[in-house]
């Protein structure tokens, strides 16, 4: 951030006001906290009004600050779009690309193509934020995100990446030898099931289908985790039965380290979509990533979502 620049001071104010923190804004902008503090003081003196109320514990916009923030957000976004639109005309896309993805998409979608994408586009600086929460790509200034299809927000442009995701219910051979195989989802009531805790605090239901009609159950067990790798480890070690994306357990099942269960009861999920807000000009790095990912993974044409995300 160049000292004394009104535009940069306004951008710094937006970053601080949105994150309610000088430290977080400084980390995002790559500057010292003292530089931000000095810039905000200069801006407030120049405008003759206090924009932020700040204590040792919190930062919040004043009424004047909230009004300025509402005006600056679209203005700065338009400036950002104007600069990024130039990248689309370069022979080689260049610049930053920020993606937010949940852990399953990180391992199943991004990781397999990561090295090849960066090798094909050495001028792109890619930042991938792996987060199980449903991040707001606009408010958090990501270029795009990846989610399961039913979780993509209305009015986003969505591009399908890969095919449907089939779920799997698995246990170790040792667990099956000791406790037997469930024949129906209802039989899971008598088994030890490894549950996944969602970022919202709830437990992820187990999804099944009977004659094409989906339904959910909530089995019980002695282990609750919020990490898929730990869930998989628990199943491999014979702790209990796990409910995971099929691709995550395919190798272990093929090697005989896990036993697939209830195969006739498992539905296909819509699969992953890359989504982004509608913009007049798509950033060059994002266009390059979409083209590369769809070529590698297969996809449908971009569509505008018409429904709200599923709530858990």
CATH architecture of the largest domain: 3-Layer(aba) Sandwich
The CATH topology of the largest domain comes to D-Maltodextrin-Binding Protein, domain 2
Look at the structure and give the CATH class of the largest domain. Alpha Beta
Radius of gyration: 24 Å
| Overall geometric form | elongated
Give a short account of the largest sheet: 6 strands, mixed
Question: What's the rounded overall pLDDT mean?
Answer: 86
Tally of individual domains:
3
Number of continuous helical runs: 9
Strand content: 15-25%
What is the CATH superfamily label of the largest domain? Periplasmic binding protein-like II
General description of the model:
- The structure is a single chain.
- The chain has 312 residues and is α+β, with helices and mostly antiparallel strands.
- It has 3 domains: 6-86, Arc Repressor Mutant, subunit A; 95-164 and 270-304, Periplasmic binding protein-like II (D-Maltodextrin-Binding Protein, domain 2), CATH 3.40.190.10; 168-250, D-Maltodextrin-Binding Protein, domain 2.
- It contains 9 helices and 16 strands.
- The protein has helices at residues 6-19, 22-29, 33-47, 63-85, 103-120, 173-179, 228-236, 246-254, 284-297; strands at residues 52-54, 59-61, 95-101, 124-130, 144-148, 156-161, 165-171, 194-196, 206-210, 213-217, 223-225, 242-245, 259-261, 268-269, 272-277, 303-304.
- The strands form 5 sheets. The protein has a 6-stranded mixed sheet with strand order 4-3-5-15-6-16, covered by helices on one side. Strands 7, 12, 13 and 14 form a 4-stranded antiparallel sheet that branches.
- α5 (103-120) packs across α9.
- It is elongated.
- The model is unreliable at 306-312 (pLDDT under 50).
